[in-house]
Amino acid sequence: MTIHQRTLGTTASLDVSALGLGCMGMSEFYGTADEAGGIETIHRALDLGVTFLDTADMYGPFTNERLVGRAIAGRRGEVQLATKFGNERRPDGTRLRINGHPDYVRAACDASLERLGVDHIDLYYQHRVDKTVPIEDTVGAMAELVAAGKVRHLGLSEASAATIRRAHTVHPITALQTEYSLFTRDIEDEILPTLRELGIGLVPYSPLGRGLLTGTVPASGFTAGDSRGSAYFPRSSGENLQTNLTLVERVRALADDRGCTPGQLALAWVVAQGDDVVPIPGTKRVRYLEQNVAALEVHFGPDDVAALDAAVPRGAVAGARYGDMSSIDA
User: Fold this and answer.
1) Is the pLDDT of residue 166 over 80?
2) How far apart are CA 277 and CA 57, in angstroms?
3) Which of 129, 221, 282, 283 has the fewest C-beta atoms lying within 10 Å of its C-beta?
4) HEC assignment per residue over the chain
5) CA neighbours closer than 13 Å in the CB half-sphere of residue 205
């Protein structure tokens, strides 16, 4: 199949593949890190036309950018490369703070460029909003990176509608990255209309509900060492998990009728939310990447949207996205 492109942003637009690849799990959080598998998956993604790659300095920490850099060596021209700053960590993994100070923005960018082995970043996000620093100051420093040629486009992650508006007055924001899936739809109230008013693209992370919507998670939950089974992710443990797996079974029934997997149907739902939406499902396995790409071939019409809305009503999912939501801008 040929993967078509979509355009993020209107004032400062960036053409990317209609489906991206989240690289985080190749290095940390979702079970054992797998550098070899990650590089193989990135190579296969590029071969298939999935050229929009997403990483961040804090993944690993720092090791995921190096992995991505090694994987794209010699193929930089094919890639729309996105990375993020703002979740400050030490090399040993200790979390320090959310940092949006201008000096840190500049230093973080230079460090990411070195680790990635590139001379520019296509889309540079503030990973989390630093509530102690005016967003105008942070985005002002990010705009300096654009002027210097180190960054081509700017993005925000998990920012509120009010923050997005303020940031956009300083420099055009090309995309907002935030969680969006059948299980997470609160952005439809205020954030998504704001993005469309301002001409900003949406890059949903966790479009498969952190793996729950794939239909492959057993009732016993995630394996040891996978952070999704911890209290940090309330939706995938205890009674919440059982409630949410019941919802997944409803998705499975609809997927069976369509001859696809629950994950492919759930991903097709996200893709169908608009031409300005580019989800970035993450995986470190070629076979799951190929399954996700096949979701682009699932025809999705109004009746399908209505059926999924009925099967998984807004608010039906049990548990908050994170055990601690204090880092989310509101």
Assistant:
1) yes
2) 24
3) 221
4) CCCCEEEECCCCCEEEECCEEECHHHCCCECCCCHHHHHHHHHHHHHHCCCEEECCCCCCCCHHHHHHHHHHCCCHHHCEEEEEECEEECCCCCEEEECCCHHHHHHHHHHHHHHHCCCCEEEEEECCCCCCCCHHHHHHHHHHHHHCCCEEEEEEECCCHHHHHHHHHHCCEEEEEEECECCECHHHCCHHHHHHHHCCEEEEECCCHHHHHHCCCCCCCCCCCEHHHCCCCHHHCHHHHHHHHHHHHHHHHHHHHHCCCHHHHHHHHHHCCCCCECCCCECCCHHHHHHHHHHHHCCCCHHHHHHHHHHCCCCCCCCCCCCCCCCCCC
5) 19
* Longest CA–CA separation in the chain, Å: 54
Tell me the average pLDDT across 221-243: 88
- pLDDT tens-place string over residues 194-224: 999 999 999 999 999 999 999 999 888 888 7
Q: Is 59 labeled as catalytic in the residue annotation?
A: yes
Task: Single out the catalytic residue among 59, 104, 125, 205.
Answer: 59
Is 205 within 8 Å of 231 (Cβ atoms)?
no
Quick: pLDDT tens for 119-145.
Answer: 999 999 999 999 999 999 999 999 999
Measured CA to CA, the distance from residue 88 to residue 95 in angstroms comes to 6
Cβ neighbours for 228, distance < 8 A, ≥ 6 positions apart: 30, 210, 211, 222, 236
